[in-house]
Write a structure and sequence with these properties.
about 475 residues; alpha/beta; TIM Barrel; M1 Pyruvate Kinase, Domain 3; Pyruvate Kinase, Chain: A, domain 1
């Protein structure tokens, strides 16, 4: 079975019910909805279709609602896109009418004071570059330095501006409320700078009954987040290495090193890590990835990423199903070469206590007896995550009566979740574990390692036992 999870963004290319069903059948483990695009009704419809597809497939699919955050975007462009030529002038203004080759609307506080002549302006993922020529009259006049295609609602980045904006502002709260009403499992926060951004969102979620079971994903896109990564990891359920905007904030030649460091810190903290942006970008228009893209995906797996993500490839691309299948093929071919020794050595030297020590013992036993699976009953998913962080060679099977927990674990590498009622008797649990693993056809032949709280449910994980 594949350990690395696949997160796919739904959009115009995959919005129809049969396309979402096909994505799940192709191997998708989680679905991302980008709230930066579309109306409330479109979002509700897509989320309902995702839920229907998951029920039809009888598969635990995590649903991620990705809110826009303080990102500045250009407005609508006539025809959907425009190609800017180097040397041309392009004006950014507050006019909401569709843009063209001469101008486009943007929404930005204090537009005249947000940039100065000579400042750079980057569009999209930084592929199109402008330079500010003049400001005033509630507009910014720019010169195109690096030309290219600009789509409607493309991101706009002012590297030298320091705009005071909230990471979880009014639009984000509105979109999050729509997502909560339709049962999202994770809220992804854009442009997180520190733990306080996550704590603000957590408090907002906890005030709503349907929000208490929703996890938080911190999108790492700012240089400030790199400096605060350990505190961010303490407050988040997982991180997304969002290489588009992060690749603008940090020198491009250091991006791969930052990716490796971020994934490593998440692994050690026992939080999942998603690697995102341009994994298979050429597949927006081509049925096969480039060799460089295949290598990029493989390196993310070797870095220890729990999940890899498709953005444009599955949202607007011509070959979304093929992109999913290629991620599946590359991950399967690469996972056997991942070396978990560094992670396990870090575990042995970080003063692990109690549940972490029990999880480590379960993994050592499983490796020693060539176990078929490590089975753990869990209510919150914590024990399954603690075991999975050490990357055992066998699957981690989480037994949970909570559907929300099972769905959230769909983004944790190496974990398979199965429904199971709470158990109060160890003998019953041992028997049930064997039956469920056999029925689900999980792992290779061999014994099962069971780790649980004793007396079973409701206690911290304190038991490791072998089930033949």
């Amino acid at each position: 079975m594949r350990r690395t999870k696949i997160l796919a963004t739904v959009g115009p290319a995959t919005a129809q019910p049969e396309r979402i069903v096909a994505l799940v059948a192709a191997g998708v483990d989680a679905i991302r909805l980008n709230f930066s695009h579309g109306s409330d009704e479109e979002h509700r419809t897509l989320l309902r279709r995702v839920g229907s597809a998951a029920r039809r497939a009888k598969k635990e699919i995590a649903v991620v609602g990705d809110v826009q955050g303080p990102k500045i975007r250009v407005g609508e462009i006539a025809g959907g896109s425009v190609r800017l030529r180097s040397g041309a002038r392009w004006t950014l203004d507050l006019d909401s009418t569709p843009g063209d080759s001469r101008r486009v609307g943007i929404q930005i506080p204090s537009i005249e004071r947000s940039a100065r002549p000579g400042d750079p302006v980057l569009l999209g993922d930084g592929d199109v570059g402008l330079e500010v020529v003049r400001t005033g009259g509630r507009a910014i006049e720019t010169r195109v330095v690096s030309g290219g295609e600009v789509r409607s609602h493309a991101g706009l980045f002012l590297p030298r501006a320091r705009l005071r904006t909230s990471v979880f502002a009014e639009k984000d709260r509105h979109d999050a409320a729509v997502g909560l009403a339709e049962g999202i499992d994770y809220l992804a926060l854009s442009f997180v700078s520190g733990a306080s951004d996550l704590e603000e969102a957590r408090q907002w979620l906890d005030r709503r009954p349907e929000g208490r079971s929703v996890g938080l994903i911190a999108k790492i896109e700012r240089a400030e987040a790199l400096r605060s990564i350990d505190s961010i990891l303490r407050s988040a359920d997982g991180i997304m290495v969002a290489r588009g905007d992060l690749g603008i904030e940090v020198p491009l030649e250091r991006l791969a090193l930052e990716q490796k460091r971020l994934v490593r810190r998440a692994n050690i903290a026992g939080k999942f890590a998603i690697v995102a942006t341009q994994m298979l970008l050429s597949m927006v228009n081509a049925p096969r990835p480039t060799r460089a893209e295949a290598t990029d995906v493989a390196n993310a797996v070797l870095d220890g990423a729990d999940a890899v993500m498709l953005s444009e490839e599955s949202a607007v691309g011509k070959y979304p199903l093929e992109a999913v299948r290629w991620l599946d093929r590359i991950a399967r071919a690469t996972e056997g070469s991942f070396d978990p020794r560094a992670l396990r050595e870090a575990e042995s030297t970080d003063g692990a206590r109690s549940e972490r020590a029990v999880a480590a013992a379960a993994v050592r036993l499983a490796e020693g007896v060539t176990a078929r699976a490590i089975v753990t009953p869990t209510h919150s998913g914590r024990t399954a995550r603690l075991v999975a962080r050490l990357r055992p060679s066998c699957p981690v099977v989480a037994l949970s009566s909570s559907a929300a927990t099972r769905r959230r674990l769909a983004l944790v590498g190496g974990v398979t979740s199965l429904p199971s009622p709470e158990h109060r008797d160890l003998v019953e649990l041992r028997k049930r574990a064997v039956e469920l693993v056999a029925r689900a056809n999980v792992g290779r032949p061999g014994p099962i390692v069971l780790t649980a709280g004793y007396p079973v449910e409701g206690r911290p994980t304190n038991l490791v036992t072998l089930v033949d």
